[in-house]
Amino acid sequence: MAGFEARSLCLVNSVPYGSAGRAVDFFHYATGDAVATVIAAGYFNTARDKLAVNDVIEALCVADGVGDRVSLIVTAAPASGNVTTAINTDASGA
Predict the structure, then answer these.
(1) Exposed, middle or buried, 1 (CB in 10 Å: 0-12/13-18/19+)?
(2) Is the distance from CB of 51 to CB of 26 less than 8 angstroms?
(3) Beta carbons of 83 and 43 less than 8 angstroms apart
(4) What is the rounded distance in angstroms from the CA atom of residue 51 to the CA atom of residue 34?
């Protein structure tokens, strides 16, 4: 396990929504870590200053040479404690 690498988390786009000046950020991330490692609470802790609730991370996890893509939604990005994500299993929202 290599662990989180900040240089591999790249902001792709920021999209405003609503009327209160809110925005959601979209990131790409690539790692040699397995999906199970990346989705664990606290994995993105050192990126807490970049992440906010509802941000989206498209991650490519290339563990043991086999790539697996996972779409994550940030569910918590507190000033202290663990950054958490959830796997987006249904992009339609249904």
Answers:
(1) exposed
(2) no
(3) yes
(4) 21
